[in-house]
Amino acid sequence: MLTALELIGIAVFAASGALAAVRARLDVFGVVVLALTTALGGGIVRDVLLGVHPPAALVTWPYLVVAAGTGVVVFWFHPTVAKLRRSVLLLDAIGLGLFVTAGTSTALRLGAPPYAACLVGVTTGIGGGALRDVLLREIPLVLRREIYAVAALAGAVVVVLGDQLRLPAGLVSITGSALIVGLRLIALWRHWNAPIAPKLDG
Amino acid sequence: MLTALELIGIAVFAASGALAAVRARLDVFGVVVLALTTALGGGIVRDVLLGVHPPAALVTWPYLVVAAGTGVVVFWFHPTVAKLRRSVLLLDAIGLGLFVTAGTSTALRLGAPPYAACLVGVTTGIGGGALRDVLLREIPLVLRREIYAVAALAGAVVVVLGDQLRLPAGLVSITGSALIVGLRLIALWRHWNAPIAPKLDG
Amino acid sequence: MLTALELIGIAVFAASGALAAVRARLDVFGVVVLALTTALGGGIVRDVLLGVHPPAALVTWPYLVVAAGTGVVVFWFHPTVAKLRRSVLLLDAIGLGLFVTAGTSTALRLGAPPYAACLVGVTTGIGGGALRDVLLREIPLVLRREIYAVAALAGAVVVVLGDQLRLPAGLVSITGSALIVGLRLIALWRHWNAPIAPKLDG
After folding, report:
1. Global confidence as pTM
2. Are A40 and A10 in contact (CB under 8 A)?
3. What is the pLDDT of residues C108-161, one digit of tens each?
4. Which of A37, A88, B13, B26 is deepest in the core (most CB within 10 A)?
C-alpha cells in the first residue's frame, strides 16, 4: 500500500510540473521533462545528499513510467486537468505529506542525526517543486505560499520524534503525513499566510 | 581519438556558454565561469548521480584548460564566433552526441540499469546547457527547441541496446553519436518542432 | 577560534540571503529558507562534489541554529540591517575568505588534486550566493560583480601553493583569507571591475 501511495505522490507532482510546463508553452518533450523533474527531483536531491548512488528514482522503473506517462496525459488532456485545480491541490498536499515522511524515514534509516533527517525530509518534499519553478523562471512557490515549508517541517518533526520514542514506523509515517495534509488544507481553506516584513524605504 | 573528440565536445559547449554570457553583458570572469559551467556541468551532474568523487571534470586538467581557454578566446573574438553560428550549431550537435553516448556508457560501466543509464546519458548531454540557461535566467533551450531531448534519448537507447546485444562498444558509441547528430541537423534544417499544447482559456 | 570564524562566515552569508529575500517580499519562512540556503549551500555543494555524506552543514547543528537564527533576526530588524550595508559588505568579504580557504583545505585533505581543490574552494565560497540569486531569479552577482570570483581564486591558489610547499596550514589559511578580503575591499573601494566585451551588433 505504501508503494501505491508513493506512485500517487509521484503522479500528482508530475501533473503539477506538466501543467506548469503547458502554461509556459513548452512542447510535449519539455512537458515530459518537467513532469519527470518535478516528480523525481526531490528524491534525487535526497539520495545525492545521503550518498545513495545511483538515486532510487533512476533505478525504479515504475517511478519513471508513472511520471512520464502523467506528463503525456496532462499534455493531451490539460484543459480538463486544469479544471480539476481543487483536486490537484488536495493531491499535491497528499504528495507533500508522503514525500516528506518517506524522505525523513530514509534519512534516519541511513544514520542521519535527527535535525539532518528533518532537513532532508523537507528537501525531499519541496525540492521537485523548487526545481520546476527555477526551470520555468519563477521564484519557487514554496518560498511564497501558505504555510508550505512549515507544514512539511511539522510532519518531519513528527517522524523524528516517533523514531526517538520507538513508536511503530508505519503509524508515525501516517500521523506525520496526515498532519502535513491537514495543515496544508486548513492553510488553503483559511488563506493562512506567514507574515511578510514591512517594505523597505530604500 | 575518443579523447580528442571529448575535448572538441568540451570546447564547443564552452563556446556556447561563453557566447551566451557575452550577450548577457557579463565581464570576462563571468564569461569564463559560464564557459566552465556549460562545458563541465553535465559531466559533473552525471558523476554526482553515479557517486564518482570527485567528478572527473574537476580532476582532469585538460578539460579545465580547454573550457577556460575557450571562454577567454570567445570573450576576445566573440564577433567572429557569433558569425560562425551555423558552425557552432553543427559542433553543438556533435558535442551533444559525444556527451550523451559517453555518459550512457559510463553509467552502464558503473552498473546502472538500462533505463537509468539512458537518463544519466541524456542528463550528461543536456545538463550543462540547462545550467547555463538557468544562470542567465532563461527557460532552458533544451525544453523549447527542435527535437533536442528526443535526439539525445534516441542516441542513449542505441548505446543501451548495443550493450545488451554485446556489440563492440566503440561501434555502438559512434552509431549513437551519429544518430544524435543526424537527428539534430535534420531538425534544424527542416525546422522540426515537437507539438505544443493549445493555449489554455483560463 | 577557527570555529568562531566559521560561524561568523555562516551568519554573514545567512544575513545576505535573508536581506535579499526580504527585498523580494518573501514571508518569514521564505526568508529563513533563503538564509539557510545561502549560508549552507556552498558547503553542501562542496561535500556533494567530494562525496562527504551527509554534508557537514546538515549534521552540525550550530551551523543550522546560527543560519536560521540570523534569518529570523534579519526578518524582524531588517531596516537596521539594511542600513549596515557597508558592514555587511565587509563581513561578506570575510565570509568569502573563510569559506574559500576552508573549502580548498577540505578538498586537499580528502585527496583532490591541486587544481580541483582550487575549483572546489571557489565553489564553496560562491555557491551559496549563486543559489540565493537563482532562487530569486537574479543573474548571480558573482558573475557580474567587482573581481569577486578572481579574489576567491587567488585565495584558493595561496592555500594550494602553501600546501605544496608544506607551510603551516593555519598560517596559509589566514594569508589566503586576508588576500581575498583585501582584494574584495580594494575592488569595492576603487570600483574595480573586470572588462566587459563590446556589444554585439546582431
Report:
1. 0.87
2. yes
3. 999 899 989 999 999 999 999 889 989 998 888 778 766 888 899 999 999 999
4. B13
